[in-house]
Amino acid sequence: MPDDTLNVSHFLVTGDPLIYGADVSIVVVSIAIVAVLTYYRKWGWLWREWLTTVDHKKIGIMYMIAALLMLFRGGVDALLMRTQLAFPNMRFLKAEHYNQIFTTHGTIMILFMAMPFIFAMMNIAIPLMIGARDVAFPYLNAISFWMFFFGAMLFNLSFVIGGSPDAGWTSYPPLAESEFNLGPGENYYLLALQISGIGSIATGINFFVTILKMRAPGMTLMRMPLFCWAVLATSVLIIFAFPVLTVALALLLIDRIAGAHFFTMLGGGNPMMYINMFWIWGHPEVYIVVLPAFGIFSEVVATFSGKRIFGYASMVASLMAIAVISYFTWLHHFFTMGAGPGVNSFFALSTMIIAIPTGVKIFNWLATMYNGRVRVTVPMKWALGFIPNFAVGGATGVMLSVAPADYQYHNSYFLIAHFHQTLIGGVVFGMLAGMYYWWPKMFGFLLEERYANWGFWWFNIGFYVCFIPQYLLGFMGMTRRIYTYPTGMGWSTLNLISTIGAFMMGLGFLFIAAGIVYSIFYGERDTTGDPWNGRTLEWSLPSPAPHYNFARIPVVTSRDAWWTMKEERKQGVLPPGRDELRPIHMPKNSGRPFILSLSFFVAGFGLVFHWYILTVIGFAAVAACLLLRSFDYDTDSYIPVDEIKKTEASYGRS
Amino acid sequence: MSVMQGSLFNHPPSRVGGERVEHADHPDPNLWIFGFWIFLASDLVLFASLFATYAVLHTHIANGPSARQIFDVTGFTAETLFLLTSSFTCGLATWSMRRGQQGWLKAWLVVTLIFGLLFIGFEVDEFATNSMKGYGMSTSAFLSAFYTLVGTHGCHVSLGICWMVAILIQVFRLGITEVTARKVFVVSLYWHFLDVVWVFIFTVVYLTGVMG
Known about the structure:
The structure holds 2 protein chains of 2 kinds. By secondary structure, chain A is mostly helical.
């Protein structure tokens, strides 16, 4: 048992200046937030407008804020690791601390940054794009958000209370079993992921139903914007992949808490069962986060090329092909398990095949830009930066898929560079493109370009400086998760360059953040609702959209519906006679999703420390919330026509 | 109650100019039902993962008993009969509901609940008996997988009982309305789903267990 942070007898983590720093900053920030809210009398506003909201636009904004904060925390973890690896024999972090940091970095970036970021974009854009007034189940949507939020809080709490998990973001047994990992860190990991996972499954179901059942009249499936197709594919993946993670985590938790033998070395357990299940979720998961990014690129590229997307049908087909094939590639994460040539060949082939639809998409984006009037705006920059980035990431992925060669690459820095290239180059670039693209729709002002450009260039160039050396380091034998290395391996220069690149990316992030702050005060107002000359229905609404979205549900006659409407108006074709306004049915706000998720948090916290009384209290509160909802018949109301007229008039519309 | 007859679950979509209109002015109960089907698909994957785990581990008995040694044919046959019958009576409940027969709806739901409770009682007894003999969760990988798979199903049934009671109270209070009818229908879908899962548990776990 190491003597410091893993020590379970200490409730508060002690002995590390970084953690004391975190303690202080958490206390200071909390006091500041409370003080500001109290001083400006904003508690009621916070509760009414945000904590109890069921409006998909506000939920999307909250997801985005959370994702940006988690990007910051995960990024700080990354910089700590890169600092430790900058020079040989560094003594910046201890081995145990390094283990915790790479674990939290990976977990946070995938589950508490990438996931909420895609959910943010889905929430903000999907109902507006399909001409709906909200998602299918707005109350459930609020539950999804708060489950994610409290899951993330539980995970982050481990840093200062009890100690962080340290068995890697994949948390493989037997290392993650209580036999080798007594501390509460692994419990935090398992419960936090479980709680936020419930929210993710609910979101998958919600958007699947929303897209299939809530489209405006005339919007056939093949008239949907490609982002909707991408989210449909992602939802299907969530619905069928996340339950497998739920089971994998639950069984590991049962092993740890009830002494079962699923994945232990003794008692007939089989650790490889966990690893298989983890990746049956894990591989679809990478497509869960990257498909929405593909969807965003399709929207951004079409809008800023002034053309409809090239090869729409083939784009749809590739999305669906990727969604299906992604279930048949999981074993490529552990070719070295030794399943034999037959099994390895199957998974090598399926992995190579999945590159084909991805390639189709890349060519379609290029063809869309060809002969178009390309406007190189900020979202377009991220889309343009993505293409070479993802091409390299995809090519190295195909290299890794060659099973015999993978025995050489396995768990080396080559792999690290590959998946960062796809996840940062694909997902982060995509989400930032989406953020800049839809920001005016969310807030009614544009993000200032100068800061955004600095952010883009530092981040993009920094990316290559950081990760290209890691491919080489992988070839030179540097494996992942080592916390230090001796001199004379020939790794020193490349590691230093990589660290410099990481700090360049950090600087890029600071520029992006500074640009947001600057734009809040000085950003250009979007008075038209259509700042980019967009093609899809969300741009037909004022910015930010009224809370009922559409006063009248639009009738769709073609793909790129808003573009068609604008063209028809230019040609003097009058829109068909409009219906009278009618009262709009909307769900009521509710504080229960917040309290329900808080109860899950309490129950989870109890389980982390085996305080079963707290767990029972938490679950009792969960049951109470569910029952109260069942008996609640006052869940929705109508917005009267007068109020709609007034709101529309305030936007200068009728 | 004429609202109920056939109109709830086979809602013809309203049409405007030949196009389907999905946006009714009031929420469409079919939306919930469709969403619940999708949830069931997701839950099925959860059970599939547990079945896969059981399939991998059921021979890993370590120093513990084998399946044949602990499975009690009378017990699991009784459980099966109770649950299958409860699914049938649950079907009768929705059938009565569609015919607007409130009394029968309540009666069949109560019968369903009684069979559900009997099922849970027998299952608890089975688990308790085995635990008393010292065959617990931590005895072997086989027993870990057995208790988890069957126990997860049992938890689902218990939750279903609580849920059904809550809905029964609402039926007593409000009668058959569009909302309570939707709720009865959704909980019955859940109940039948658990029945289907049990059929797999019966064959994959118990039958192969006593035969193998």
